[in-house]
Design goal:
TetR_C_16, Arc Repressor Mutant, subunit A, Homeodomain-like_sf, HTH_TetR, about 190 residues, about 0% strand, elongated, TetR/AcrR family transcriptional regulator, DNA-binding
Length: about 190
């Protein structure tokens, strides 16, 4: 029974941390503030997460299933990726752990490392493998995957971090689809 309580407490702490980091960023959030919001002692945050940095990294851990984007012909890759990207950007609230991590990457080396690892694992490498599987040689597949990854990160920064208007979601999806497909096709 204590294990369930510990797991529930840890989860409650993470939920409050995600909300606070999402709304206020890394610097403004305190261990005490998260502990108070979660109704726990700050010592539990230290015990479960090792402190604020560990809490931040746990609260911003993201897993996105990317495999469905790679089912199908390469000629439709841009459309599949764009649909998934716009859906995530449109459906995920402002305290999206990936968005929080993205915002914090400029001020926290741990956040930058976590974001780079996430992008390698969920973007660059899967796109590279997919392009190789569709018949491109390794070097060509790697350079095209890197171009797609950099493009999407740049658009994400502009759209989600800098909050620049890029049109409505349908227009954004069409533009992303066309551009990603051009990059995939070389």
């Amino acid at each position: 029974m204590a294990f369930r309580d510990a797991a529930a407490t840890r989860q409650r702490i993470l939920e409050h941390a995600q909300r606070q980091f999402g709304r206020h960023g890394y610097t403004a959030v305190t261990v005490k503030g998260v502990a108070d919001a979660a109704g726990v002692s700050p010592n539990l945050i230290t015990r479960y997460f090792g402190g604020k940095d560990g809490l931040f990294l746990a609260a911003t851990r993201v897993e996105i299933p990317v495999e469905p984007s790679f089912d199908g012909d390469r000629s439709e890759l841009g459309a599949r990726l764009a649909a998934n990207i716009v859906r995530r950007w449109s459906d995920t609230p402002g305290d999206d752990p990936l968005l929080v991590l993205h915002r914090a990457a400029g001020e926290r080396p741990e956040a930058a490392e976590a974001l780079a690892a996430f992008l390698d694992r969920n973007s660059l490498e899967p796109i590279h493998r997919y392009l190789c599987d569709t018949g491109l040689d390794d070097a060509t597949a790697r350079s095209r995957a890197a171009a797609i990854d950099a493009f999407v990160l740049g658009v994400s920064t502009r759209y989600r971090i800098l909050r620049s208007a890029l049109g409505d979601p349908a227009e954004l999806q069409t533009w992303l689809s066309t551009t990603i497909q051009r990059l995939a096709d070389g």
